[in-house]
Design a protein that fits this description.
Elements (H helix, E strand, L loop, with lengths): L2 H7 L2 E2 L11 H7 L2 E2 L2 E2 L4 E7 L5 E5 L17 E7 L2 E2 L2 H18 L5 E5 L9 H7 L6 E2 L2 E3 L6 E4 L5 H19 L15
Antiparallel strand pairs: 1-7, 2-3, 4-5, 4-6, 8-11, 9-10, 10-11
Helix pairs in contact: 1-3
């Protein structure tokens, strides 16, 4: 999210964890995106939202209903802007932390492939990628969709995957993890639209 870079450029610390999270600020707010021990709820003050009826409202942090990778925003609401709170910081130190995060992501995640980001929420006290790996799903493929060999909590598009391929693969992984470990993985990716 480029908001982290803008904050760095203006000497605002606290948003470094957003570096490399795919998507938009609106999507990050809706799902309480996070990484490296921080989440949007740690820095959000309020968000401007367009409701389904067309009304534009400002929702304060206390009214967002944030939990792990979730907000209680009304169904169909669209986040159009957000106000974040940071601290004064040295752009060089902020940049160094963002660089460290970027390098760590590059080493461990399939950033140079087509992916929707992290696919499943981490169950309490567990790592989704470890459950996927233990269920034998590393490299599993349906059509042109594949479980990443580099990081098992990423589904990648090998070039011609349809949304149906991605969803079928994601559901197959969930089924195999449930059979193997008894854990029912929850989608982190928010899917919209009708099944193809």
């Amino acid at each position: 999210i480029s908001a982290a870079s803008k904050a760095r450029d203006h000497g605002i610390a606290g948003m470094e964890f957003l570096r490399g999270i795919p998507g938009t600020v609106g999507g990050a707010v809706r799902m309480n995106a996070g990484a490296y021990g921080r989440e949007v709820c740690d820095i959000l003050e309020s968000a401007d939202v367009i409701l389904r009826n067309g009304d534009r409202v400002t929702i304060a942090l206390a009214d967002m209903g944030f939990t792990y990778r979730h907000s209680a925003l009304p169904e169909g609401a669209i986040v159009v802007s957000a106000t974040f709170v940071g601290q004064s910081g040295d752009p060089k130190i902020i940049g160094a932390e963002m660089k460290r995060i970027a390098e760590e992501r590059e080493a461990s995640q399939p950033l140079r492939t087509k992916t929707g980001g992290s696919t499943y929420k981490n169950p309490e006290g567990q790592k989704a990628w470890q459950l996927v790996d233990a269920a034998g799903c590393r490299g599993l493929q349906i059509g042109q969709a594949q479980v990443s060999e580099k990081h098992c909590n990423f589904l990648i598009n090998l070039g011609g995957a349809t949304s149906a391929d991605i969803e079928a693969l994601g559901d197959e992984v969930r089924k195999r993890v449930k059979t193997h470990s008894g854990v029912e993985l929850q989608w982190e990716i928010q899917r919209v639209g009708d099944v193809a």
